[in-house]
Amino acid sequence: MTAAPLILLKDIWYFALPGAALKPGGTKAKILLGEPVLFGRTKPKDGGPGDVFAVRDICPHRGVPLSEGSFDGQEVQCPYHGWKFGPSGQCTHIPSLVEGQDFDIAKIKVRRYPVREQNGLVWIWMGKDEPDQEPPGLPELPADLRPTLTKAMLFPCNMDHAVVGLMDPAHVPFIHRSWYWRTGPIKLKTKAKEFGPSPYGFTMKRHKPAITLAYRILGAAPETEISFRLPGVRIEHIRIGANSVWNFTAVTPIDDTQTEVSNLFFWTTPWLGLLKPIALFVMDHFLGQDRDILIRQQRGLKYDPTLMLIRDTDTQARWYYQLKNEYLRAREEGRPFVNAVKDTVLRWRS
Questions:
Q1: Is the pTM of this model over 0.85?
Q2: How does DSSP classify residue 309?
Q3: What domain range includes position 45?
Q4: Helices (DSSP H) in the chain: which residue ranges?
Q5: What pLDDT, on the 0 to 100 scale, is given for residue 216?
Q6: Quick one: which of 54, 48, 44, 49 has its CA closest to 74?
Q7: Does one domain contain both 199 and 306?
Q8: Is 80 within a domain?
Q9: How far apart are CA 207 and CA 194, in angstroms?
Q10: How many CA atoms within 13 Å lie on the side-chain side of 312?
Q11: CA distance linking residue 1 with residue 310, whole number of Å
């Protein structure tokens, strides 16, 4: 089976950034799906955390990015002529207007993007209409839990290639090699995992992982479940007795040729905080190895080759393309999404 065309979904929630990146009264400009977006967090008078908002990062007057201006915790001010906009995108003040002039300021707006903040994760809806679903969040995660480790890296490729690389089970022994892990000759073992459908995606069902150094650190007899859902969210839930670790990875398109891959960890075991410096080093190394092979892939893709997907190794990638196509068709036809993934066992060597 060959790979499907590269298409970016719009009417769906994307992970945007960690909530900790927005302090009360702070802003952050990003490009998402080729659109300039200004994120901000209001500065509440009662001293609370403030509300996150997102607006198009372009002043409708002369096109200057609003992020080049200032934010007082309540309103963004354009640096060119001082126009002000609230978190809803509504223009609130035009300094040059003279009292009594016949001009309806209420008609001036910048686009507001719906956002949600859950467990320290900020999600954004880039579709034309208001969202008709809620962000995926992290199943079983305590409401007050926030990410302990955060790492983001820019991949110079289309989102599809980043997602397929993320779920590819066969590349690990060839790409993720280092002086501290997988040294010496490559030795492949046969793997067999049970999969089944889950909301807008699929899940590798809970199982006892092969014992590696990472799992030994967490404790005896761990169990793990790995789920993927559109548009590009992978969640690994590792359960060790009464404690849990969640490895959250999100693939968010900057545009057609650049993608941000974010990796965040949540855990309920306090002593794991002692390992943060080591964990951050490993996260940076692993993401860097994935990025490096995708950079090398781009050298071949510029010749527009036909790409292949084989069973069972690439079945997860095939599911991803099928899910995307079904999501697009369901939105266009105004009908419910139908997940074609069935309970099955996939086998490969890695």
A1: yes
A2: -
A3: 13-125
A4: 159-167, 172-175, 213-218, 276-301, 315-333
A5: 57
A6: 44
A7: yes
A8: yes
A9: 9
A10: 13
A11: 7
